Amino acid sequence: MKNFEISVLDLAPVKQGKSINNTFQDSLSLANFAENLNYKRFWLAEHHNMESIASSATSVLIGFIANGTKKIRVGSGGIMLPNHSSLVIAEQFGTLESLFPGRIDLGLGRAPGTDGLTAQALGRNPAIINEQFPRQILELQRYFSKENSDALVRAIPGEGLDIPMYILGSSTDSAWLAAELGLPYAFAGHFAPEQMEMAFKIYREHFEPSQYLDKPYIIACVNGVAAETSEEAHLLSKTLFQAFINIIRNDRKPFPAPVEDMDAIWSAMEKSMVLQKLKFNFIGDQSEIAEQLKTFQEKYQVDELMINSHIYDHQKRLQSYEIIKRAVDSLF
C-alpha cells in the first residue's frame, strides 16, 4: 500500500443555533488542532447563497486561518475560477503568499459553487465556461511568472511567486485538463464519488510532465466521522446525512444536531440517494477507520487524503480528526 499524506477540507459549516462568527472561530480552532496533529494542509471551499456554508469570501477566510496558524499549508479547495477575473485571484493569492510565504495553495474549480440564479449574479457566462476555465488557468500562470514583468498588465503582488496550483474536479472533465497541464489533481469524492475511479485512470494515463510537476499527484477528498466507539460515530454521522437530505430537497439551512432515527426523516428513495453520494464516507472507531482507509488506499493508491468531517459538536469534530490521524499513523 502506497504511503499518503492527510489533510483537512473545511466548508466553514454553519450550525443551527450558532452564529457565523462561531463558525469562523471553530474553523480556526480546527486549523490549529490539525496543525498540532501534523496534518499537511487545510483547505476552504468557495460556496455561495447557502445558509449552511460560510466560506463564500474564500480568500479572506484563508487569510484569517493562515494568520492564526504557524506552519500548516492553507488554501482553496477551491476557488471557482469562472466566478472571478484571473487578475483579481492572482492579486489575492499573491497577497496571501506575500503575507504567509511558502504556506498558500491555490486549488481551482470550474463549477459555480451555487445555484443557477446566484451564478448569474456572480457574472458567469455558462456558454463559455469550458473555454474560459483552461484559459484562465494559463492566465494565472502567466501572472505569477517572472516573465510577465514586461507585460502591460501585471499582478502585484503575485508576480514571480511560487504558488502551487491544483485542478479540482467532480467528473472526468477536469482529469483531462489536469493531465494536459501537468498539474496536481484533487477529486471531490466527498459528494460526487461516481466518476472518481475513471477520473484517476484518465489523469494517470494521460499525465504530461510540466515545469510544475514531473509525475501525477492525486488528492482524494472523502468524508470521515470517527469517535471512540462505533456506535457514537454512527450517531454523529447523522448530521452529515441530514445535510445531504437538505441538498436533495434544495433546503440549504444550517447543519442540524444528529438524530437517533434517520428513518423518521428520510424516505427510502432519499436514503438510497444519500448513501450513493456518501460512498466514500468512513465511519467508526479507530480500528474501523484504519481498515476502511486501508481498503480505500489499496484500491486507489492516492498521494493524499483530504478529510471532510461534518460533525455538529465542535469538540467531537476535533476528536474525529485526532482519531482519523491515529488511524492513518497505525497503517505505516
TrEMBL record:
<dbReference type="Pfam" id="PF00296">
    <property type="entry name" value="Bac_luciferase"/>
</dbReference>
<dbReference type="InterPro" id="IPR011251">
    <property type="entry name" value="Luciferase-like_dom"/>
</dbReference>
<dbReference type="InterPro" id="IPR050766">
    <property type="entry name" value="Bact_Lucif_Oxidored"/>
</dbReference>
<comment type="similarity">
    <text>To bacterial alkanal monooxygenase alpha and beta chains.</text>
</comment>
<protein>
    <submittedName>
        <fullName>LLM class flavin-dependent oxidoreductase</fullName>
    </submittedName>
</protein>
<feature type="domain" description="Luciferase-like">
    <location>
        <begin position="17"/>
        <end position="298"/>
    </location>
</feature>
<dbReference type="InterPro" id="IPR036661">
    <property type="entry name" value="Luciferase-like_sf"/>
</dbReference>
<dbReference type="InterPro" id="IPR019949">
    <property type="entry name" value="CmoO-like"/>
</dbReference>
